[in-house]
């Protein structure tokens, strides 16, 4: 019997957010493609950074939102992110989103797009860029 090792890698993306009113870079050429699979729960990890590529604290100040669309711009998934950040700087600016197996049952194999934005406690929305 042949053994085939398989590894589950973190699906991680760094995002740039203009949270302090600075100039934000946006280069769609460098957007990262993420693979989401049917039949399993997909955990996506995001890290919010400022324009200087430094992690930004989002603990108790922002709620991350994740929205995924199909090729016809129909919304498939809308989730609040789960913030991983604690008082230690280890996970500063990081949050996860779980796209469950049930969310993708009726989605055919295709390229989908997604948006991530931050909602402040005051209700203001800030778009992020990959």
Helix percent reads: under 10%
Structure annotation, total helices: 0
**If you average the pLDDT, what whole number results?**
84
Distance between the termini: 43 Å
Characterize the largest beta sheet: strand count, sense, and whether it forms a barrel. Answer: 8 strands, mixed
Strand content: 35-45%
Structure notes:
It is a single chain. The chain has strands at residues 11-17, 42-49, 62-69, 75-80, 82-83, 94-99, 113-120, 125-129. β3 (62-69) and β4 form a beta hairpin. It has no helices and eight strands. 0% of the residues lie in helices and 38% in strands. The protein is an all-beta fold and 130 residues long. The chain is globular and about 55 Å long.
What's the SSE blueprint?
Elements: E1 11-17, E2 42-49, E3 62-69, E4 75-80, E5 82-83, E6 94-99, E7 113-120, E8 125-129
Parallel strand pairs: 1-2
Antiparallel strand pairs: 1-8, 2-6, 3-4, 3-7, 5-6, 7-8
Summarize the structure.
This protein has 130 residues and is mostly beta strands. The protein has strands at residues 11-17, 42-49, 62-69, 75-80, 82-83, 94-99, 113-120, 125-129.
């Amino acid at each position: 019997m042949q053994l085939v090792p398989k590894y589950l890698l973190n699906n991680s993306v760094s995002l740039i957010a203009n949270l302090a009113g600075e100039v934000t870079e946006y280069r769609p050429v460098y957007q990262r493609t993420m693979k989401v699979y049917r039949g399993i729960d997909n955990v996506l990890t995001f890290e919010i950074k400022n324009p200087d590529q430094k992690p930004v604290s989002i603990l108790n100040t922002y709620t991350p939102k994740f929205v995924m669309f199909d090729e016809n711009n129909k919304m498939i998934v809308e989730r609040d992110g789960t913030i991983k950040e604690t008082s230690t700087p280890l996970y500063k600016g990081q949050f996860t989103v779980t796209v469950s197996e049930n969310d993708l049952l009726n989605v055919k194999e295709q390229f989908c797009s997604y948006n991530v934005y931050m909602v402040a406690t005051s209700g203001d929305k800030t778009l992020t860029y990959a």
